[in-house]
Amino acid sequence: MGRRCTATDRKQNSALLSLNSASSRYSDSLMETMRALVATAVGEPADVLRLETWPIPTAGPRQVRVRVQAAPINPNDLHIMRGRYGIAPPMPTPLGQEAVGLVDALGDGVNQLRIGQRVVTVGLLGTWQDYIVHNAAQVLPVPDGLSTSSAAQLVTNPLTATLLVSELDVQPGEWLLQTAAGSTVGRLVLQLSGHQGFKTINVVRRQSAAAEIRALGGTEVISTDVDDLRTRVAEIAGGEGVRKAIDAVGGQIGADVSRSLSPFGTTLVYGALSTHRQTEPGKLTVPLFARSLIYESKTVRGFWLYRWFQTATPDGCRIRPGRP
Ligand SMILES: NC(=O)c1ccc[n+]([C@@H]2O[C@H](COP(=O)([O-])OP(=O)(O)OC[C@H]3O[C@@H](n4cnc5c(N)ncnc54)[C@H](OP(=O)(O)O)[C@@H]3O)[C@@H](O)[C@H]2O)c1
Predict the structure, then answer these.
(1) How far is CA 3 from CA 9, 150, 152, in A?
(2) 99-144: per-residue pLDDT in tens?
(3) Which of 22, 39, 49, 107 is the most buried (most CB within 10 A)?
(4) Which residues are paired to 70 by β-bridges?
């Protein structure tokens, strides 16, 4: 039986740097240099990215070196490159925040990992290289059955989808309104909805995406090219709207989502896809309707995985299990 295609598999062709064959070639010939895909300055990817030859790094104490097999290109990498992210690393620097690869060298004091073990990195910026060095404590072994593509994307988007749903405490039978439903995060939320039993109203920007979202288990789909978001939410969920929403688009769509909340409702804003190519500060906003916010006591707040990593406690990491 064929393996089911997961949300993360989608990026395999379009946005996954696969370094597999080249890296084994490098190690076979015992070369001391490797390739690094470097952002040389802030700007558009085509203008600022350069493939450079760098020395292969050495693992220090309590570190491991990983021979990278694949690393995804996520929207946040493009945000960093365009100078619009929450962090601004000094450039030139290799970008990329996730990778899967094989442990290639162990630094002193590393006992919990072995050479050749397949691992993913957590919290490392600069994975678009043939070899990376990282703290052994922030390297996680991955199961054999997971494809290279899925393993490379195991951290950022799956964790984000899980945390968004758990931060809003979405209950079985309850509605969750989400924008950019066709994104990797959106599809992971759909998988969670099947697992946990909540219903979804899925906003996409083109009607042609609707059938696929329904096939993935989306309860209702709103296509903003043909539908009015607020009218459709009221038709689906009732005049009061929905209690919980997640938004990755921002701009007018984000504002419409917040208008569609019921009193005491909450939107978690976790992306701003509508601003990706904008440079005018005025366009980087979500024009919230003040009266609706005030008189209906609504909350619109941000979520950023980077900050969650900095602040999470072991208790905060407990995630609700799925339905039995
Ligand atoms: N806050 C955090 O910690 C965090 C963590 C992870 C991801 N994110 C954010 O989550 C978002 C989704 O990431 P991803 O990796 O899942 O994305 P992705 O797989 O690359 O998918 C992008 C999706 O966004 C849609 N889209 C792009 N521009 C749009 C626009 N202007 N209006 C409406 N839809 C638009 C695309 O629709 P089409 O199919 O129609 O092209 C596509 O479905 C990004 O903004 C990312 O930065 C945030």
Answers:
(1) 11, 12, 17
(2) 999 999 999 999 999 999 999 999 999 999 999 999 999 999 999 9
(3) 39
(4) 18, 100
Q: Who contacts 279 (Cβ-Cβ below 8 Å, separation ≥6)? A: none
- Domain spanning 7-152 has what CATH number? 3.90.180.10
pTM: 0.89
**Does the pLDDT value for residue 186 go beyond 60?**
yes
Percent of the chain at pLDDT exceeding 70: 85
Q: Among 14, 189, 205, which residue has the most ligand 1 atoms within 8 Å of its CB, making it the best to mutate?
A: 205
317: confidence class by pLDDT, cuts 50, 70, 90: low
DSSP state of 129: B
CA distances from 185 to 8, 75, 155, 212, 262 (A): 9, 11, 11, 15, 24
Ligand 1 lined by 68 (C-beta under 6 Å) = no
Superfamily classification of domain 156-317: NAD(P)-binding Rossmann-like Domain (3.40.50.720)
138 alpha-carbon distance from chain centroid: 18
Closest CA to 158 of 17, 313, 11: 11
132-178: pLDDT as tens digits: 999 999 999 999 999 999 999 999 999 999 999 999 999 999 999 99
Where are the extended beta strands (E) located within 3-117? 16-18, 33-39, 49-55, 63-72, 93-94, 100-106
Atom of ligand 1 nearest to the CA of 306: 3
